[in-house]
Amino acid sequence: MSPSSALLVALLCTPAAGQSTVVHLNQWELPLRNGSREDTITSSKGTLKHMQTLRLQDVATNGSRFGGLSSIIVAPNGSGLLAISDRGAFEDMSLGSLTADGEYNVTEVRIYPMHDPQGYIIPFGTGGQGDAEGLTINGYYEGGGGGELYVSYEGDHRVLKFPNGVESRRSTRLNVSYLFAHCPSNGGLEAILKQRPTAGVDGLLLMLCEEPSNSSAPTTDPQGRIVLPGWAYNETSEDVKRFYLESDDLFHPTDMAELNGGDMMILFRRFVPTEGNGMRIGYVTKGELDQAMAVGGTLNPQIIAEVRTRDG
């Protein structure tokens, strides 16, 4: 998802023991908007507060294993952060103590390899088997790289489950790859979300293609709106519910997060070479999602935040 280095909305992490490589970083703090001290965005759903953004770069630039961060998960109390890179690795970040200004410093990154279902290490590098794009967890992330993790990949579109977090020596390939046959090679699953269990019932795995299907027409209109395919997968029964997501202005879904109560936020990104990057956050209620899954309907998220490079 990300180009070089990484933009992080600040949070925390705990190193995990095991087979890892330690990487030391240079880091630069960046404002939400250049030339502005503004740190809040107000919407009808409430106020979003920008905590911290860091640009990170490996001190050892030659042969670095530290790639662009594709997706992150964070402990609810801010005590841990885990990321995946588009080079096919887990990245567990250690942060220094909170400063008087409420900020953190990344002191190091522990990089863990990913293992395929046969127990082999997935080849490291951009593209190919290791193009990891989406990360989610069953339940809450408690730090240390632990938990039942799910990772989606582009190119060879697939979702792997890592039952023991970053320490997993084998993964399991979910029976969902056939769903993504029409997703573009470089526009597959960047946004995935494992819903939290409710009343003892396992949550569904939500998945969205980043770009419109190769075969589902019409997927665009003269106003620039696009319709993106999505799926809700039940691991127990292997049942699949189809739904769709609408977007426009070249914004594509790249991550999702579930809120308490079942509402969710969707992160969209936009890149146009002559204009630079853009980011949107869309809001979908649990009721809207349930209805779309029930009838194969289309979600039209409420946009609660938008930031673009051209705006400073």
UniProtKB/TrEMBL annotation:
Key words of the record: Signal
The Phytase-like domain, residue ranges: 65-293
One Pfam family named in its UniProt record: Phytase-like
Signal sequence coordinates: 1-18
InterPro entries found in the cross-reference section: Phytase-like_dom
The protein, known as: Phytase-like domain-containing protein
